[in-house]
Amino acid sequence: MILEKGKAALLLGMQYGDEGKGKLIDVLAKEADLVCRVQGGNNAGHTIWVNGEKLTTHLLPSGVLHEKTKLVIGSGVVIDPFVLATEIKNMISKGVLLSPQRFFVDSRAAVILPYHRNLDVSREKLRAQNANQIGTTGKGVGPAYASRAFRDAPRMAEFCVWDNFLQWLDRHPHLAEDLDESAISSLRDVSAFLAPYIKDCAMVANNALASGSKVLLEGAQGTMLDVGFGTYPYVTSSSLVSGSCAGGLGIPPWAIKRVLGVIKAYSTRVGNGPYPGEIEGTFAETLRQKGHEFGSTTGRPRSVGWLDLVALRYHVRINGLTDLAIMKSDVLCGVDPVAVVTAYKDKRTGEEMRGFPVTIQAWESIEPVLEFVPGWSSLTTSKGKLSKEFSNFVKKVENFVGVSAIYLSTGPDRNAGIWR
Ligand code: IMP
Question: Is the CB of residue 242 below 6 angstroms from any atom belonging to ligand 1?
Answer without folding.
Answer: no
